[in-house]
Sequence to fold (647 residues):
Amino acid sequence: MGRIRVLPDAVANQIAAGEVVERPAAVVKELLENSLDAGATSIRVEAESGGRRLLRITDDGCGMLNDDAMLAFERHATSKLSNVKDLFAIATLGFRGEALPSIASVSRLTLETHAKEETAGAVVEIHGGKMIRNEPAALANGTIITVRDLFYNVPARKKFLRSDQTELAHIASLVTHYSLAHPDKSFELRHDGRELLNVTPVETLRERMFQVFGNQTLEDLIDLGAHEKEMLVPDAAEEDRTRVFLLRGFVSRPQVQKYNRNSIYLFVNGRLIRDKLLLHALTSAYHNLMPAGAFPFALLFLDCDAAEVDVNVHPSKTEVRFRHGSWVHDFVRDAIRNTLVESRPVSSLPLRQQPEAQPAARLPFSEFSQRMEDARMRMAVPMAVPVNDASGVSEADLPSFTLRPTHAPAPRFDFTEPPPAPTPVVSAPGKMRIPDTHAALPEGALIDGAESLDVLKDLRPLGQLHESFILAAGRDGLWVIDQHVAHERILFEQVLRERAAGKVELQSLLMPMVIELTAAQQIQYAQIADELRASGFESEPFGQRTIAISAAPAAVGAGEIERILFEILETAEKELRGASLDEVRRNVSATIACRAAIKINTKLDQRKMEWMLAELARCEHPTNCPHGRPIALRYSTRDILRGFHRI
Ligand code: ADP
Ligand code: MG
Fold:
């Protein structure tokens, strides 16, 4: 007898499960896709203990015929394909016929289903791939699949599962994003009996976004509208020569930055995928609008002829291959880029408010949506004083600064001097009065990356506008520089540099500063204590819920220490859940830089302006502040000449 054997189905199914069923969220993905393929209009997902104890998906789709209920668990049993030709134009989400047998081989699965064509439904129960029960039952139309004790018979797999919260986060993200892909359907998600998401049908994607994320988040996003473009396929038959591509969705304004790709969701023909090509197209669209290493939020829906995209690339169907990849890449990049440029998110003077379209009726959204908003949309909240916003900063908060003698290689503003006489403020503190004539001004162009670096070195300060912006003459035109964000960028890079070199400049406090923390703050403090120490905050626990700070970063004014610390802890609580150490570090540094930077409505003399421009020219990323806001606008000599009709 030879040595080669055909594996029994049970083994083959478990092998397939290894690829298809990576974690509870993958089960949800397969079952949800089945429900959508079955034409369901209402889908409920229930989970217990992060999905390991129980997952149940209930739909009102077409249900399965009694004969099919058993067959569905055979390997490669599917109602969605019948021949090889179908493989090249797949219109359903599923097609491999692998999900149900795979899931049933690593869990205790119950299927309850009833197709309206038949008088009764069927219940099928399978434990670890073994049939336990198969009998008729009186059931409502549709399908309920219950998956209990996932991986109970695959201990090795079970070990790889993360905490319930992490597994739940994956499930929640998946259900949320499928709900965004189908605004016309109801979705419900419950965990341990608690409702996390519940959305009713609406007409537009925008309304669904509103249901899920709320208004706050929508304001930070740009609606791409519908970009349609025809592609010509020269080698195709005459009547089949044009292929239409349609791109819709939402992308974030460039000032909204993420430090990883977790907020990018790509759907191709309704299927949630990961795709390097589309990801690259997206990031290229933001080229020079965002610092390197930062990512936008994006929810993209690309629809095209099924023949243009091969979905049969990976067992979990999370990857695709485009037939005309580079065309698709450029189409997506240009569509997004054009929208970004049109909406002028940063390049126009940041004084005009874009009128926001009001979503129709405000629909109730649960606590979950708030949490999703916090977690998903971890915006780099502008902690800086917004130019056109009353910030509540009082005069006394304005930092004092004097310039040190220039012997030091990197001079810095010194905040330890007593405050000067209050700076005259144009209107309310922190708020600027903007002359109405600004609308008549030509719009400055946002400086962009490589080109600007060199030009910055030659900038000559001419004066200040509203004691908030430095006007400077450059080789190539007139520059307007936001003094607060420029200083913020300078300090941010300095803090990171010092931090990397392990040489953070400290100021020791004569008397330790005792600060009382709330329970929540204490938890955050414990989590980031090391990072705080490395950034220059020396502190020790001091009694219950109290800490004593003995030193702080030198850049921070003494009066600011407590506030900065609270701000860091607050950011940590809201934004750093699950963040990497690097993100924590950048956030701590950004908060320090923002707080320590000079504010708007602060007079600068010639030497300070020169110092600022010289330091900015030395920055690695002189175009955006750590939160992504632009630092400078430029009116090119060409534009000026054109404005005066000299060219
Ligand atoms: P695939 O989706 O690739 O066809 P699955 O193993 O996921 O393979 O499902 C097998 C078959 O079971 C499907 O082709 C479909 O006919 C049927 N099926 C699965 N889930 C449902 C459902 N929720 N409603 C109706 N039919 C379903
Ligand atoms: Mg399927």
